[in-house]
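User: structure tokens for this one?
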Amino acid sequence: MMLIYRGHWRPIAISQIFALLYVAFMIFIPMQVMIIINNAQNINAVIQNAVLIALFAVLTGIFCMANTVYAVRIAEATGNYIRNGIFTRIQNFSFGNLDRTATGELLTRMMSDVYQINIGVHLSLRSLLMAPFAIIVSLVLVGITSPELLWILVIVLVLSIATFGSAMYVMQKQFQIRQAKYDLVNNDLQEDMAGIRVVKAFVRQDYEINKYRSINDAYRRANVRPLHTNAITMPAALFIMGLATTLLVIYGSPLVAAGTITIGAMLAFFQYTFIIIGQMWQLSMLLPQIVSAEASAGRLKEIWYTVPDVQDSPVSRHYALENVVGKIVFENVDFRYDSKGETETLKNINLTIEPGQTVAFLGANGSGKSTLVSLIPRFYDVSGGRVMIDGVDVKEIPQENLRNIVSVALQKAFLFSGTIVENIRFGRPDSTYDDAQAAAQVADADSFVAAQQDKYDARVARKGQNFSGGQQQRLSMARAFTVKPKILILDDSTSAVDVETEGRILDALPRFLSGVTRLIVASRVSTALAADKIVVLEKGEIVAMGTHKELIKSSPLYQEIFDSQLGGLKKEDLS
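Assistant:
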């Protein structure tokens, strides 16, 4: 929090000055009441002090309002700053960081946790300095006006600290548990809403309803516990107030009768007691919120100080796109997703891809195809060895520069809400309308886009839900083509389109992106047949490499894949 407010202490200081002035005028009102009662026969003194009470009440309201206005502004500015900061840090996360953090959890932290901090800052600026100041000044004034009764306030203070402090200590753990349960609710809700069509297709509504009810009920119980703990504070405050009143009547009345203290002082004592207990009760409301905000701040701190797995080298330098040829070399590459894990996803990868070649990667699910190509644009960094483009280690190229050189159509198509043309130009905002249309034609998307009422200005629903899976993939590929990179990666991005459409796309690509090195992660053998080189992977290792003609004769694994998918064709017809 110190970092957030560095250089912005002035409004905070002003808000606290207003808070102290508010308390000061509020506390001096009982003194004026005492003077009026003690000098009830002096009409001038009564009028004069009554005017002062009215003036103090007005000033109390003005300074209270001013403090509230500043508190609200500072709290909202704090929430805005944290949300912007967290969003920026998430945008800078590497794929590995995102793999380890659920989307629902990120949403919870950005919204619920920031809200808790917002409320905590607001209430702190209202009461955190004001309440102790009011308590201390009240004790001093009681010590001056009726020192014989000061011990009652000491008892009140000790009981209040013990009661409210214990409640705060218990609630600290309860708030942490509550936020963890809220994460689970958010994650389950997001997952279920995204997959609701699958749920309905397999008639699993009852299962999902029961699962959500169970998670939601756990959150309810976790949410109720701190509220139950906090519920004791109001009865505790009333009990302490009642105890103070009883002690005041029992021990104060004889003192008044003996003339040791005045009736006005006794009434002022009662008002100061009420102020002290009231401020302690306010602190009891504030401190749990501070505890909750502290728990939320701890969760946000994890994101705020998370270091991206992939970072630019201090000695990295920019490479002009026009100077890139597109030769790729994997040199003794090893990779594991968990740096502490023992299982390697990729092992001893040595591969050279010449400029302008079309290379297909084939293998079973989990063989490492997508992982291998993800190392080129540095979605992940190698665990061992190096990946080079034109003889330059990709770690020496700034990520922004590298991802202009390498364009990727990801395995899972994703469209943003907006228009079709905005989605196609997403990777290259300065491209023209004609560029977007040309890329869509290569991706075989122009035909269904032209059928839309607004053509390329047609709206895209959230996550592209108003388009089929195949249409989403074609628009995603058009987005990658529009960048006009030197290296293009199609990460199984044609899996949802038919073979005929896929063939048209792959045939049109070399004309649109002439001389571009093309890497295709394939689930279908038919996708790989026309490639200059086919790389076959198994359990993270390259087990065969060559053209279709070569592999159909030499690689048992390739033959097995071919037979399982195209077994009805004669191999010699394709060779």
